[in-house]
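Supplementary Note 3. Input sequence used for the single-chain structure prediction.
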Amino acid sequence: MTLAAALSDVRELERSLGDEFAGRLRYDFSDDHEVRIDGFAFPDGWQNRSGGRYGSILIELPETYPEHPPRVFVSDDMRYEGSRPVQMAPGRVDAPADWAAFDLFSDPDSWDASAHSLVTVFERLQAVLESPDGFDEVQN
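The predicted structure, written as discrete structure tokens, is reproduced below.
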């Protein structure tokens, strides 16, 4: 992983979230190569076990980032209209939160290392969260 590229991408993501984002973005590239967004307001139709729309997002950068896409996880207790969309599967346990993998880049050709960044990842995630049933249209 190119640390300079990853840090640049995190700063770009922070700017793209804008002032209206009330959650918290944090990252750790020393051990885990992760970017975490807490307090993210999921779109209408999404709820956690408590009935709220707020949850967390975890973006895990591979050692080969940006040549290969990050893996994306969302809070495991988030549901869309009461169930898991097909893109969401149990992924990993990371105290104190349980995470479900969210498949955004299953097609190897869907990631372009020269053009995509963490902002691309977040924009794609937002599009899929807003329309889980239209995932194939978002991906292509």
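The two ends are 26 Å apart (CA to CA). The mean pLDDT is 86.
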